[in-house]
Amino acid sequence: MRARGDSTGKEIEETLISTVKNHSHIRVFEHTFALDLLVSNNTCNGIIAWRSCEGKILIWAKRTILASGGCGQVYRETTNPEIATGDGIAMAYRAGVKLQDLEFVQFHPTTLYVAGAERILISETVRGEGGILKNKYGEMFMPKYHPNAELAPRDIVSRSILREIHKTDYTHVYLDVRHISKEKLSNRFPKIKKSCASFGIDITKQLIPVHPSAHYMIGGIKVDKNGRTSVKNLYACGEVSCTGLHGANRLGSNSLLEGLVFGYRAGNMAGKESGKKKKDLSPRSFKETAKSHLYSELDLEDVKNSLKSLMWRSVGIERDGKCLKEAIENIKHWSKYIISNEFSSPLGWEVQNMLIVSILISSSASRRCESRGVHYRLDYLDTDDKHWKKHIIVHNGKYDFVR
Ligand SMILES: Cc1cc2nc3c(=O)[nH]c(=O)nc-3n(C[C@H](O)[C@H](O)[C@H](O)COP(=O)(O)OP(=O)(O)OC[C@H]3O[C@@H](n4cnc5c(N)ncnc54)[C@H](O)[C@@H]3O)c2cc1C
């Protein structure tokens, strides 16, 4: 599935937005931050949200669907947009919803590596059209790591690049597309060509500096085939959810398809189940009473950057028990004064959510003592079907292992 060369996601987003805008029964709250789910007796009744013009509001709903995307922002290097701070996963966790497979984070091998620039994704199709990876010395290296060379699975290409970076003691490798015709590069990769040009890189004549980045959260809120979660009246779809469809290693291009299919199913089921009976569901403002201790001196940007670096270093493409343990200790320490604190704007809430998601990823990764798909343990190199062909499910601080 592809649209306008390399702009499939944008095309889907624009179609969805215009459909929603033209639908008389859909009310849109723009610039509204979802804070928490309203859950009692294992039943969801809506959300608490925040709007800069009104403060906190309650939005009641007969059915709630979480579609808040991924959590790539917990990593220093990521292809994900700034909003991908894992808010939905953290909200669900606080509400006791079951989460699954959180140790499986997919890293994309090739993102543009220019200091200070956004990590623009250089899609697989560039390698599919003949793009060649080269190290600092201009040497091809993929054939020595895998018989399919540049076309090996994402996790293998990411690990090979990482090794080459370590070996050459350099910050990145290169993608060479200079031998591909100018016409093909313009027709097939207009966005990539334009993005590189904006940083002074003419891909028809120059090598593209690339580096792996966190790309896609395979795990998430455990859902059934209709998007239902473990909490009544709550659904999830898209990257925030875990349908199990991607196994331990997602194939490229399947995420948008999954989002479309499961988004449709969840919406359909939520509509059917909510019935026709009208209920007063208008949003209400409310006054907060208790305030917890405020640490006025907190530098949230510093906490956020430290967390992202730690996750990249210790819970990244390659992991081991010692690094994971240290990461968990550090995150727990930061969480002590950040999570208990009261914040009044999205930055604080996002950092709280990022800490929760990071601890869940690290703890799941430390429990899975094997390598499988995108989860690669240096201290457990083999896939161990006998003990580990099962999911790690977490809720309310409890980890269950389910076949
Ligand atoms: C650069 C890049 C290229 C990709 N290319 C492909 C591809 O070619 N094919 C493919 O299949 N997949 C691709 N993927 C993966 C795919 O794009 C994502 O998995 C998919 O877009 C996720 O969709 P979503 O609707 O679940 O989340 P999103 O599209 O991320 O939408 C989440 C929405 O929730 C909102 N939100 C988040 N938190 C809150 C909050 N607290 N309150 C209110 N709103 C909130 C966000 O603002 C956003 O509008 C790509 C991903 C990236 C980053």
UniProtKB/TrEMBL annotation:
Keyword tags: FAD, Flavoprotein, Oxidoreductase, Pyridine nucleotide biosynthesis
Domain FAD-dependent oxidoreductase 2 FAD-binding: 7-256
Record-linked InterPro entries: FAD-dep_OxRdtase_2_FAD-bd (IPR003953), FAD/NAD-bd_sf (IPR036188), Fum_R/Succ_DH_flav-like_C_sf (IPR037099), Fum_Rdtase/Succ_DH_flav-like_C (IPR015939), NadB (IPR005288), Succ_DH/fumarate_Rdtase_cat_sf (IPR027477)
Pathway: Cofactor biosynthesis; NAD(+) biosynthesis; iminoaspartate from L-aspartate (oxidase route): step 1/1
GO terms assigned for molecular function: L-aspartate oxidase activity
Reaction(s) catalysed (UniProt annotation): L-aspartate + O2 = iminosuccinate + H2O2
All residue ranges annotated as the Fumarate reductase/succinate dehydrogenase flavoprotein-like C-terminal domain in the record: 305-395
Gene3D superfamilies (UniProt xref): FAD/NAD(P)-binding domain, Fumarate reductase/succinate dehydrogenase flavoprotein-like, C-terminal domain, Succinate dehydrogenase/fumarate reductase flavoprotein, catalytic domain
Cross-referenced Pfam families: FAD_binding_2, Succ_DH_flav_C
Swiss-Prot/TrEMBL GO biological process terms: 'de novo' NAD+ biosynthetic process from L-aspartate
Top-tier EC class: oxidoreductase
Necessary cofactors: FAD
Keyword Oxidoreductase: yes
Enzyme Commission number(s) from the entry: 1.4.3.16
Protein family (similarity comment): Belongs to the FAD-dependent oxidoreductase 2 family. NadB subfamily.
Protein name: L-aspartate oxidase
